[in-house]
Every structure is written in structure tokens, then in C-alpha cells.
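Holo model, alpha-D-glucopyranuronic acid. Inputs:
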Amino acid sequence: MTSCLMAAALPSFSQENPPAPQIINVEARQTTSLDGVWKSIVDPYENGYYDYRLKPLADELSYFADRDFNEDRTVLYEYNFNTDKTLQVPGDWNTQRQELYYYEGTVWYRRNFDYDLQPGKRLFVYFGAANYETVAGLNGHKIGKHTGGYTPFNFEITDMVKAENNSLVVKVDNRRKPEGVPTVNCDWWNYGGITRSVLLVETPETFVRDYFIQLKKGDMRTIAGWVQLDGPELSQDVTVSIPELKISETVTTDGNGYASFEFKAKPEYWCPENPKLYDVTVAAETDSVNDRVGFRSIETSGTDILLNGKKIFCRGVSIHEEMPYGKSGRAFSEDQDRILLGWAREMGCNFVRLAHYPHNEAMVRLAEEMGLLVWSEIPVYWTIHWENPDTYANAESQLTDMITRDKNRANVVIWSVANETPHGDARLKFLSSLISKAREMDPTRLVSAAMEKSRKGKDLLTVDDDLADLVDLVSFNQYVGWYDGNSEKCDRVSWEFPVKKPVFISEFGAGAVYGRHGDRTERFTEEYMEDMYGRTVRMLERMPGLAGTTPWVLKDFRSPRRQMPEVQDDFNRKGLVSDQGGKKSGFYVMQRWYRKLASEAAE
Ligand code: GCU
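Output:
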């Protein structure tokens, strides 16, 4: 029997149905939150997606159909969202349900909602992030797929949404894959699930989807950028206004909905001491978006990093996106972000390295308001499959999504394309393509990566990596005193850097159990941490061209690689703060040093 109602034109779903182009600054738009309690089905054999011959099921036979056996028990179903368990969204599943602590596989989520979409309006479902591979479906039909665990994605549902009882079904699979980004081996917990907020975003038929507004590279008196419309009426007048600067500039978008602009301006420059943000409106004829934007320049000169033309030392700390206190787990809320960034401020930081993947947008925006510079990174981490074109496409997609989302944040000054990746021609080619892509998308910021140290002589250390020629910083991780010798080794080594660029120590550190005391030679005691940190600070003060450092790591974090009972218990203990908020000896060593550096800089 054919339905008498012509089904709305459904997007034909291919295996790789990509999301719609990312809508930026969603919080400033007409949104409806879908956060809260969702129904869930744990499906380790992907029974809801494949038949017993591993062929993808037709939608009506898959869990996207969202059938309820209790409505018609004459039909064979073997799943039921309505009678299954729940999960909180946002949030990883590992720390919500004990049985999912180590789970790596598929979990299905289901959320019902009503939506009265008026004619002339469009509707998207926006995910802040879901780790790792997501397939979304609405009202029984797949709508799209996204790969990558830490960047936003949105699907248009304008032609599919109903006024009442929509069924949004989302399949999330967090299995690690050799060809993935990251690959199967990394030093953090593989938190799976819809780990950030889900929003319905309503827009006019033609709307302001994307824009870039920053100081023009090399010209502190010019604001430059572009705007991109999305919809049928692509050629419109668009006015960029910054009332506090008495600026109102109008451009006309071309047939693709794009227009660039630049105009003279004399803004107060954003900096950690004065994180000045301006109200900016991007107004087309059919849509208008408000944002808060800071203006600053970032560049290097020899071994100096210059913020607004002035030499700066980046007093930083590395941070994993893990909630403070409680059960740890993937952080997702502004309150959690505020605690983490508050600890960094208390330590005397003006900089945070958001490792090893893009953190939630609120973290970046909050850091911007607090005057914290940001190093933002994609999880091209350790032994990525450098020769796999799909792996490269995945990495580039995550880089593009990261830059798209945060390119208007003044505090983001470094895009990092990798962490501790093994030397080799394929790796160099892979990373140089990512670096070119970052520079093409955003010429206003620095591009770097966390490289590794190498030995030049018995106690002479350096960074010998071809990548150093391609990036703007000689940034690298070093663990003299922890993985490389004991604390006293910090006193004997010296450093030499052939590439004359700012030196940036993106990681150093030592493990300690909060409150564990003993001799300073005993690993995992606070005395060892204090001694190692003190010797490291003295070593850093001897380091030629040092322009910043982000010790590893702000807070103890979960990792499946850290198993030792009574010491690690699945936590990497290099946190300067314990997972329950206890400040360790190393925190105070850094605080003293950073306060000294800050007062010297103020002289
Ligand atoms: C590496 C790596 C981190 C890891 C750290 C450690 O440098 O970049 O992700 O957690 O070392 O071993 O603690």
C-alpha cells in the first residue's frame, strides 16, 4: 500500500552522508536545547544497524525506526527504547553507568521532541561533539554521519521535522580504530557518547552561517574578514557593526553568499591583562547574528612571541577536558570549565594548552573572558596512519571544524596539528599539508605542534625535527627528571636549538599522589614532584629562547595506561591538582615561578 501523503523529500542517505556546513556561534541563535535524559540501548554487536550477514539494515528494520513492541506485539521487534535504560546528555557513558566504564562500542540514544517550524524557517540539529563515530536519524530515517570525537556538527532537518513527537535517534560508536584520529593508542580515557550539548537551531531561510572578524595580519589599525550566507537569497547587503568603535560597514555578498571586508579601526587590543571584547553584529537583510569579539595581533620575531607587538612569556598549563571533582568524566559545562580555568588563573597562568583535542566552546569563550591565551589542538597523536588518505581527510576535517568554530576567539593564538608524532617522510607530508590548510584558513594565528626532544651529546639536548622548519614555534614535550633520568638530571643538562624561533615547552612533569609523602627520591611522592619541578624551573631559566611553557598537567586524569593500584588506579597522576581538587607541591612551585615572571614582566 503506498502512503496517500507524499513523503517529504527525504535526503537520500549514503554511508558517508556528511553534516551540513558548520553553523558558528550557535548560542547566539534561536535554539532549543535537547539536553537532559535520553533513552539508550547498549548495542555491542550493532544489532540495530546490521543484519546477521553484517549488511546495513533498511531504516525500517534498524533501531532508527524506534518501534515499541508493546504497541503491537504481533510484530517481532527485539529492542525497545521506551523500556530500556537512560543516559544524561551531555555526558560520557563511561562514568554514568558502572557497566559502561570500559565499554567501547555502539550506544544508541533516543530523544523525542515537538517542534512547530513556521514556513520560511529552517531547522538544524547541532551536536557540540560526540565521540567518536555518529550516525543520526530522525523519524525513522538516517540523516547523516560524522566522524571525530571533539568538534561540532549539524544536520538540516527542515523537511523532516514534525510538529509533534519527533524521534531523534543517534548511534554513537567510540571504538578506537588504527586508521582513526586519534589512533588506537592514546594516554587518556576513551570517553564515549554524546559528550557535549545537543541543540535545535532555527534560522531564517537565508541566514548568516559563518563569518571571520579579526585584525588584519600585520596591520593593527585594520579589521578584516568575511561573511558567508546560506540559503536561496545569497546576494544581500550585509552590515558589520561595532557600536563602541562607531563602525558600521556594509558589503554585498556575491552569488555564493560570500563577501570579504576590511575597514580602519582603533580598538583596545585584547590581552590577558585587559581581555577587551566588543559587541559585534553581522546583519544581513534576512538574518542577524551578535557576537563578542576581541582584537589583537600575534606574531613571532626571532625567539620572541609578540602579542600586540609586545614580547610575552606564556605562563601556561596543559589541560585535559575532564570535569573536576566527583567521578571525573568528560567535562562539558561552563561551571566545570570555570573551576579548571580558575585553578590555572590561581597558578598565575596567562595561557592554557587545551590538550589534545578541541575542548568545548564554552571553555574557549570563558578563557577569552578571563584573559587566558589558548593553544588549541587536534588529536593527531602518536602513531597515526600517515599513509592512509581517509586518515588525512579525517584529520583535516577535524582541523577545519576546530578553526571554523573558534577563529573569532582573540585568545586562541596557536593551532596545533600534532602531538609527539614519530619522525618520517609520510608524517612530515601529512603534517605539512595540515599546516598549509591551517594557514590558508587562518593567516592571523601561529601554527605549531608538540614535537619531542632529541640528544645531541651526553647531556646536551635539542629538538632535531624537520617539522620545526614548518611551524612557528620550537614547541616540544620533554620529561627530563621523570621518563629521562631522575630529578638531579635537570641540573646537568643543557639545551641548544638550531632553529631560531620561540622555544615553547608544551609538556614537562612528574607524577605524585596528592598527600603521599616520602623521600624526595621516591617516585609519586609530593616531595619528588616538588624537587623535580624546582630543578626543572631552574633548568628552564637557563634555556635559550624560552617563550612559554605548559607543564603536564593541570589535573590528574583517567587513562587506561595508568593502572598501578593505590598509586594510579586508572589515573595519570601528573596533575598539579588531584582529581578531587587537592593542590600538590608542584602547583605551588609553578605559582611561585609564574608570580616572579609576572612581576618581572610588569617592571
Ligand atoms: C606525553 C603525552 C601526554 C601523556 C604524557 C604522560 O607527553 O603527550 O598525552 O599523558 O606524555 O606520559 O603523562
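The pocket of alpha-D-glucopyranuronic acid is lined by residues 187, 356, 419-420, 477, 507, 552, 572, 574 (CB under 6 Å). Residues 26-204 form a domain with the Jelly Rolls fold (CATH 2.60.120.260).
Archived with the compound record.
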